[in-house]
From TrEMBL:
Residues 91-236 form the Pseudouridine synthase RsuA/RluA-like domain. Its EC number is 5.4.99.-. It comes from Streptococcus hyointestinalis. It catalyses: a uridine in RNA = a pseudouridine in RNA. This is Pseudouridine synthase. The keyword Isomerase applies. PROSITE patterns: PSI_RLU. The active site is at residue 132. Transmembrane segments: none annotated. Pfam families: PseudoU_synth_2. Belongs to the pseudouridine synthase RluA family. Responsible for synthesis of pseudouridine from uracil. Keywords: Isomerase.
């Protein structure tokens, strides 16, 4: 069976076993660890190893994957000119999504940001997290199926942090506040979500008031969870609907004033601390009219 791809990196951690590296540090799923071990597809400094072998800091690690490890997946390529890259390496890519563009397509022939990013990268990419169509900002994509579950587990463990700017209506907010209202599906409108503290899913949003305007406020939102429409629902439920929200603001005007401006994580393959920020011209233009 032909090889599909290899992953190579220098071990960024202190001395540990191969098992600890793959299981505890890289968070590789059990099924894939089994394949790597039985096929002897882990090399340390280009040498085959025992599963309990030690890996020193700085050792060259090579992981080899077959087609049956990760079946090939193809995607319809979009327009690479529509991509605003912020960071890219062999493992993942972070881009700045404009408002009005879906993160991924819902129909086979539909083109969305994922299709455009795949065209830009010249290969099939994978969504790690999504933004609503109306929201702009930073989105993370995996560039191979090996790194995808690692990034997904980092997201679950809150090792990937996402920060948003939102321009909201309503009375003056405290300097900081945390919303913990549970979120569930709207029973009569499948597009919407509602606060449902009895049957909903846990949702935690941390807010910081950044600036107060004559009629509105700019807030920073940081997520502990990633429920659909989480920020939009929490703010509207607590009487601070986001300006321009077509679903949750009683009088929406202009674009949804929600922008994912910052994303931070520790690179799982290098241990490097990474932090990225991106602006939105349309968000800034609307903000400048508030003074």
């Amino acid at each position: 069976m032909p090889m599909t791809f290899q992953v190579q990196f220098q071990n960024p951690y202190q001395k540990l076993s191969v098992k600890e590296l793959l299981e505890d540090k890289l968070l590789i799923p059990r099924k894939i660890r089994y394949f790597l071990r039985t096929k002897k597809h882990v090399l340390i400094n280009n040498q085959p190893i025992n599963w309990q072998s030690s890996v020193e800091h700085g050792d060259d690690v090579t992981l080899i994957f077959d087609d049956d490890d990760y079946p090939a997946k193809t995607i319809l390529f979009g327009d690479k000119q529509l991509v605003q890259p912020v960071y890219e390496d062999e493992h993942f890519i972070i881009v700045n999504k404009p408002e009005g563009m879906k993160t991924h397509a819902n129909q086979p022939n539909e083109l969305a940001l994922l299709n455009h990013v795949s065209a830009y990268a010249g290969q099939t990419c994978y969504v790690v997290h999504r933004l609503d169509k109306e929201t702009s900002g930073l989105v993370l994509f995996a560039k191979n199926p090996f790194i995808l579950p690692i990034l997904n587990r980092m997201l679950e463990k809150k090792a990937i942090k996402r920060y948003y700017w939102a321009l909201v209506d309503g009375k003056t907010l405290p300097k900081t506040i945390t919303y913990k209202d549970k979120i569930g599906r709207h029973r009569h409108d499948r597009r919407k979500r509602i606060v449902d503290n009895k049957h909903g899913q846990t949702a935690i949003t941390h807010l910081k008031r950044l600036k107060t305007y004559p009629k509105n406020q700019l807030v920073e939102c940081q997520l502990d969870t990633g429920r659909t429409h989480q920020i939009r629902v929490h703010l509207s439920y607590n009487e601070h609907p986001i300006i321009g929200d077509p679903l949750y603001h009683p009088h929406p005007k202009g674009r949804l004033m929600l922008h994912a401006y910052k994303l931070t994580l520790t690179h799982p393959m290098t241990g490097q601390q990474l932090s990225f920020q991106a602006k939105s011209d349309s968000f800034e233009q609307k903000l400048n009219t508030q003074a």
